[in-house]
Amino acid sequence: MPKLGAHMSIAGGLPRAVDRAEASGCQALQIFTKSAGQWRARELPPDEIALFRRRVRETRIGPVVAHNSYLINLAAGDLSLRRRSIDALREELDRAEVLGLDGLVMHPGSYTSGTEAEGLRLIAEGLADILASRPTGRAQILLEHTAGQGTNLGHRFEHLAEIIDRLNASPRVGVCLDTCHLLTAGYDICSERGYRETFRSFDRIVGLERLRVFHVNDSKKPCGSRVDRHEHIGRGCLGLEPFRRILNDRRFRGLPMLLETPKVDTRQSRRMSDVDALDRMNLATLRRLMNQSPKTIASKR
Asked: Residue 153 belongs to what H/E stretch?
């Protein structure tokens, strides 16, 4: 079966994210290793690293991956921003390594000037620089397929394939697929035919062996809108059927499937150590879909 989990807050320290994942019944986990909206990262104390790794072992939660900062843009035309992005991504990969994480999920980038082709070249060259400087690393770079807002790259399978090809098909590069992004980028995974064609195309262009992680999110926006707005499972434009197909697809057995759906508003006096009721709701919905046929789901809508 796939390993269900969610993105968890690191408020109070990295080990607290593992505690939250355990309390929520997660089998896999995604975190930020630093503030996603800041360039600066606090140094990770050795005792915090040791406790985080111990809690992961104790709970047997895994795979565990990190998501990189939203500020990083390897396709930036501005040389100082691009250099800062490369250095920041290198630092995030180092943090993933010291924490024993399986991978670092990253949005490929946006071509703020120039062309799409130039942006893809810059992304690949930046990643080549980073990987060459860390030749013995274990943590993988996981390119996330995007919704395609603005000049974001990575919303076509061909984009991902070109980056990987430019990296000489490095085994340290994998892919993360987001269900919301797939739909809004124009891949109709709602219909049975569209689902088959989407993953047939992914296998032909990128290769299913590159797929390491799913982000399981419904979408507030329809197919082809190229707008990234996540919704609770079954309450958006995807509905329940695509999730049933993915959860029960033999090709995806054992893969982590991670929620990035809306959380309870933390400004309401909820203790951060408590289970998030919305995560619990979405995980329960996904678990109900396992081993169900399309007809069974349709009768419960």
From this structure: strand 152-153
What confidence score (pLDDT) does residue 294 get?
57
Give the domain extent around 133. Answer: 3-300
How far apart CA 9 and CA 30 sit, in angstroms, is 9
Residues in the chain: 301
Return the CATH number at 167.
Answer: 3.20.20.150
* Token pair recorded at residue 240: 């329940």
Count up the domains in the chain and report the number: 1
DSSP string across 34-87:
S-TT-S--PPPPHHHHHHHHHHHHHHT---EEEE--TT--TT-SSHHHHHHHHH
pLDDT in tens, 124-182: 999 999 999 999 999 999 999 999 999 999 999 999 999 999 999 999 999 999 999 99
Rounded to a whole number, what is the distance in angstroms from the first to the last CA of the chain? 23
